[in-house]
Design goal:
Elements (H helix, E strand, L loop, with lengths): L1 E2 L7 E2 L12 H10 L14 E4 L7 H11 L9 E4 L4 H10 L23
Parallel strand pairs: 3-4
Antiparallel strand pairs: 1-2
Amino acid sequence: MITYGTNPGMVIPIGGTIPQRSGDAAFSQALTYMGLAPGQPIRDQPVNVVFLGSCTNARLSDLRSAAGLLRGRRIAPGLRMLVVPAHSRSSERRKRKGSTACFSRPAPSGANRAAPCVSA
């Protein structure tokens, strides 16, 4: 899933297109702000921030899965990655076990601390 707007509720599958919501001024304003238009495919849009977590934040198992995908790779120049563990205990266990050390090379923002829900 990928967000296309100004809040986490504006989300579609990576192969989706920007929906249309006639008469919704806030929706139209968000699309204008993002430089998008209804019907536009999201797949070809540049990605500038990757967020690993959710309103309940990322569990240690989520971090391990992402670490498996990132191991041996680097975050692309110009791309920002936010990693939000569920709580500080997950972050501490992650560091102790070393299973997600790739998050510190280069260091994604928030990799070593828990954070509140981003939609709050």
